[in-house]
Design brief:
32% of the residues lie in helices and 18% in strands. With 238 residues, the protein is an alpha/beta fold. Strands 1, 2, 3, 4, 5, 6 and 7 form a 7-stranded mixed beta sheet that branches.
Amino acid sequence: MTEMLVLPFYVVADVSYSMTMKPPAVDGVAALRPIDAANEIVKKVKIALENSPLLGDKVRFAMLDFSDDAQVVIPMCDLTKVDPSQIPQLQARGGTSYVAALQLLKRQIPIDVGQLKADGHKVHRPAVFFLTDGEPTDPDHEWKASFADLTDSSFKERPNFIPFGVAEAKKELLDQLVYPQQRMRSFVQRTGEDPSAAITSMAEKLVGSIIASANSIQSDGMGGTFILPDDDDGDVWL
Protein backbone atom coordinates (compact mmCIF):
# COMPACT_ATOMS: atom_id res chain seq x y z
CA MET A 1 0.00 0.00 0.00
CA THR A 2 1.30 3.45 -0.95
CA GLU A 3 2.18 5.62 2.01
CA MET A 4 0.31 8.92 1.99
CA LEU A 5 2.35 12.04 2.62
CA VAL A 6 0.91 14.16 5.42
CA LEU A 7 1.70 17.74 6.36
CA PRO A 8 1.78 18.49 10.11
CA PHE A 9 0.76 22.02 11.11
CA TYR A 10 1.20 23.47 14.59
CA VAL A 11 -0.40 26.62 15.94
CA VAL A 12 1.45 27.86 19.02
CA ALA A 13 -0.57 30.56 20.79
CA ASP A 14 0.48 33.06 23.43
CA VAL A 15 -2.11 33.00 26.24
CA SER A 16 -0.47 35.51 28.58
CA TYR A 17 -2.84 37.83 30.43
CA SER A 18 -2.20 40.64 27.94
CA MET A 19 -4.11 38.59 25.36
CA THR A 20 -7.30 39.38 27.31
CA MET A 21 -6.99 43.15 26.89
CA LYS A 22 -9.93 44.42 24.85
CA PRO A 23 -9.16 47.15 22.27
CA PRO A 24 -11.37 50.28 22.18
CA ALA A 25 -14.70 49.98 20.38
CA VAL A 26 -14.76 51.17 16.77
CA ASP A 27 -17.88 53.08 15.65
CA GLY A 28 -19.69 51.76 18.69
CA VAL A 29 -18.86 48.14 17.90
CA ALA A 30 -17.03 46.27 20.65
CA ALA A 31 -13.81 44.61 19.55
CA LEU A 32 -12.91 41.02 20.35
CA ARG A 33 -10.20 40.28 22.87
CA PRO A 34 -7.13 38.81 21.14
CA ILE A 35 -7.58 35.50 22.98
CA ASP A 36 -11.17 35.25 21.69
CA ALA A 37 -9.94 35.74 18.13
CA ALA A 38 -7.28 33.08 18.75
CA ASN A 39 -10.00 30.68 19.85
CA GLU A 40 -11.58 31.01 16.41
CA ILE A 41 -8.46 29.76 14.59
CA VAL A 42 -9.15 26.06 15.08
CA LYS A 43 -12.78 26.44 14.02
CA LYS A 44 -11.74 28.14 10.77
CA VAL A 45 -9.20 25.42 9.98
CA LYS A 46 -11.72 22.67 10.74
CA ILE A 47 -14.37 24.24 8.49
CA ALA A 48 -11.88 24.65 5.64
CA LEU A 49 -10.79 21.01 5.86
CA GLU A 50 -14.38 19.76 6.06
CA ASN A 51 -15.25 21.79 2.97
CA SER A 52 -12.46 20.00 1.08
CA PRO A 53 -12.63 16.39 2.35
CA LEU A 54 -9.69 15.17 0.25
CA LEU A 55 -7.44 17.64 2.06
CA GLY A 56 -8.27 16.12 5.42
CA ASP A 57 -6.32 13.00 4.49
CA LYS A 58 -3.21 15.09 3.84
CA VAL A 59 -3.18 17.45 6.83
CA ARG A 60 -2.59 16.90 10.52
CA PHE A 61 -3.06 19.67 13.06
CA ALA A 62 -2.03 20.41 16.64
CA MET A 63 -2.31 23.42 18.93
CA LEU A 64 0.00 24.34 21.79
CA ASP A 65 -0.31 27.33 24.08
CA PHE A 66 2.22 29.08 26.26
CA SER A 67 2.54 31.60 29.07
CA ASP A 68 5.00 30.99 31.91
CA ASP A 69 4.75 27.34 30.85
CA ALA A 70 3.55 25.56 27.72
CA GLN A 71 1.12 22.73 27.07
CA VAL A 72 -0.45 20.71 24.28
CA VAL A 73 -4.03 21.92 23.85
CA ILE A 74 -4.98 19.79 20.84
CA PRO A 75 -2.79 16.74 20.17
CA MET A 76 -1.72 16.06 16.57
CA CYS A 77 -4.84 14.83 14.79
CA ASP A 78 -7.07 14.74 11.74
CA LEU A 79 -9.12 17.78 12.70
CA THR A 80 -12.08 16.70 10.56
CA LYS A 81 -12.63 13.82 12.98
CA VAL A 82 -12.70 15.99 16.10
CA ASP A 83 -16.14 16.81 17.50
CA PRO A 84 -16.52 20.61 17.80
CA SER A 85 -17.66 20.19 21.39
CA GLN A 86 -14.31 18.56 22.19
CA ILE A 87 -12.20 21.50 20.99
CA PRO A 88 -10.74 23.17 24.11
CA GLN A 89 -10.85 26.92 24.63
CA LEU A 90 -7.63 28.81 25.23
CA GLN A 91 -7.50 30.26 28.74
CA ALA A 92 -5.27 33.17 29.75
CA ARG A 93 -2.59 32.67 32.36
CA GLY A 94 0.83 34.02 33.32
CA GLY A 95 3.51 35.69 31.25
CA THR A 96 5.23 35.14 27.90
CA SER A 97 7.93 32.48 27.96
CA TYR A 98 9.15 31.76 24.45
CA VAL A 99 11.54 29.25 26.01
CA ALA A 100 8.65 27.16 27.34
CA ALA A 101 6.99 27.09 23.90
CA LEU A 102 10.17 26.32 21.96
CA GLN A 103 11.30 23.59 24.31
CA LEU A 104 7.89 21.91 24.26
CA LEU A 105 7.97 21.94 20.45
CA LYS A 106 11.42 20.34 20.49
CA ARG A 107 10.07 17.51 22.68
CA GLN A 108 6.68 17.11 21.03
CA ILE A 109 7.48 17.19 17.31
CA PRO A 110 9.54 13.95 17.30
CA ILE A 111 6.77 12.20 19.24
CA ASP A 112 4.14 13.32 16.72
CA VAL A 113 6.25 12.55 13.66
CA GLY A 114 7.07 9.12 15.08
CA GLN A 115 3.38 8.36 15.62
CA LEU A 116 2.44 9.49 12.12
CA LYS A 117 5.12 7.22 10.67
CA ALA A 118 3.91 4.35 12.85
CA ASP A 119 0.43 4.95 11.39
CA GLY A 120 1.87 4.33 7.93
CA HIS A 121 2.42 7.88 6.69
CA LYS A 122 5.31 9.69 5.14
CA VAL A 123 5.72 12.99 6.96
CA HIS A 124 6.62 16.37 5.50
CA ARG A 125 8.66 18.81 7.54
CA PRO A 126 6.28 20.36 10.11
CA ALA A 127 5.17 23.98 9.91
CA VAL A 128 4.78 26.10 13.05
CA PHE A 129 2.57 29.20 13.10
CA PHE A 130 3.65 31.04 16.23
CA LEU A 131 1.36 33.78 17.62
CA THR A 132 2.43 36.29 20.27
CA ASP A 133 1.32 39.73 21.41
CA GLY A 134 4.57 40.85 23.01
CA GLU A 135 8.19 40.33 23.83
CA PRO A 136 9.38 37.28 25.77
CA THR A 137 9.80 37.39 29.52
CA ASP A 138 12.86 35.14 29.15
CA PRO A 139 16.41 36.53 28.95
CA ASP A 140 17.48 36.99 25.32
CA HIS A 141 20.20 34.37 25.46
CA GLU A 142 17.75 31.74 26.72
CA TRP A 143 15.07 32.04 24.04
CA LYS A 144 17.69 32.43 21.32
CA ALA A 145 19.40 29.24 22.51
CA SER A 146 16.08 27.37 22.57
CA PHE A 147 15.25 28.51 19.04
CA ALA A 148 18.72 27.56 17.79
CA ASP A 149 18.23 24.11 19.34
CA LEU A 150 14.82 23.68 17.66
CA THR A 151 16.13 24.66 14.22
CA ASP A 152 19.60 23.11 14.36
CA SER A 153 20.51 21.08 11.28
CA SER A 154 21.19 18.06 13.50
CA PHE A 155 17.51 18.00 14.54
CA LYS A 156 15.96 16.12 11.64
CA GLU A 157 12.38 17.14 12.52
CA ARG A 158 13.25 20.86 12.65
CA PRO A 159 10.16 22.78 11.52
CA ASN A 160 9.43 25.63 9.18
CA PHE A 161 8.74 28.49 11.60
CA ILE A 162 6.48 31.45 10.79
CA PRO A 163 5.99 33.98 13.62
CA PHE A 164 2.96 36.27 13.82
CA GLY A 165 3.06 39.29 16.12
CA VAL A 166 0.19 41.50 17.25
CA ALA A 167 -0.22 44.37 19.74
CA GLU A 168 3.19 45.01 21.37
CA ALA A 169 5.18 42.41 19.40
CA LYS A 170 8.26 43.82 17.63
CA LYS A 171 9.24 42.94 14.08
CA GLU A 172 12.98 43.18 14.73
CA LEU A 173 12.60 40.49 17.39
CA LEU A 174 10.21 38.18 15.53
CA ASP A 175 12.38 38.32 12.41
CA GLN A 176 14.87 36.32 14.49
CA LEU A 177 12.29 33.53 14.82
CA VAL A 178 11.94 32.96 11.08
CA TYR A 179 13.17 29.59 9.80
CA PRO A 180 14.51 29.00 7.23
CA GLN A 181 15.59 32.63 7.02
CA GLN A 182 15.72 32.79 3.23
CA ARG A 183 12.40 31.02 2.62
CA MET A 184 10.01 32.01 5.40
CA ARG A 185 9.07 35.40 6.87
CA SER A 186 7.44 37.06 9.86
CA PHE A 187 4.06 38.77 9.93
CA VAL A 188 3.86 41.64 12.42
CA GLN A 189 0.79 43.81 12.89
CA ARG A 190 1.11 47.39 11.76
CA THR A 191 0.82 50.05 14.46
CA GLY A 192 -2.77 51.07 15.04
CA GLU A 193 -4.35 47.90 13.70
CA ASP A 194 -6.79 45.92 15.84
CA PRO A 195 -4.94 42.88 17.28
CA SER A 196 -8.05 40.70 17.00
CA ALA A 197 -8.51 41.63 13.34
CA ALA A 198 -4.85 40.77 12.75
CA ILE A 199 -5.35 37.35 14.38
CA THR A 200 -8.35 36.79 12.11
CA SER A 201 -6.07 37.61 9.18
CA MET A 202 -3.53 35.13 10.55
CA ALA A 203 -6.21 32.42 10.60
CA GLU A 204 -7.01 33.16 6.96
CA LYS A 205 -3.32 32.91 6.05
CA LEU A 206 -3.02 29.63 7.92
CA VAL A 207 -6.03 28.19 6.09
CA GLY A 208 -4.69 29.39 2.74
CA SER A 209 -1.30 27.86 3.43
CA ILE A 210 -2.85 24.55 4.52
CA ILE A 211 -5.01 24.31 1.40
CA ALA A 212 -2.21 25.28 -1.00
CA SER A 213 0.27 22.94 0.67
CA ALA A 214 -2.16 20.01 0.72
CA ASN A 215 -3.06 20.60 -2.93
CA SER A 216 0.61 20.29 -3.83
CA ILE A 217 0.52 16.60 -2.86
CA GLN A 218 -0.12 14.40 -5.89
CA SER A 219 -2.96 11.90 -6.02
CA ASP A 220 -0.50 9.04 -5.50
CA GLY A 221 0.68 10.61 -2.25
CA MET A 222 3.95 11.81 -3.74
CA GLY A 223 5.41 15.30 -4.11
CA GLY A 224 4.13 17.98 -1.81
CA THR A 225 5.68 21.07 -0.32
CA PHE A 226 4.94 23.64 2.35
CA ILE A 227 3.63 26.83 0.76
CA LEU A 228 4.22 30.05 2.66
CA PRO A 229 1.16 32.24 3.36
CA ASP A 230 0.58 34.91 0.75
CA ASP A 231 1.10 38.61 1.44
CA ASP A 232 -1.98 40.13 -0.16
CA ASP A 233 -3.04 42.21 2.85
CA GLY A 234 0.02 44.37 3.40
CA ASP A 235 -2.17 47.01 5.04
CA VAL A 236 -2.35 44.74 8.12
CA TRP A 237 1.15 43.25 8.28
CA LEU A 238 4.70 44.56 8.24
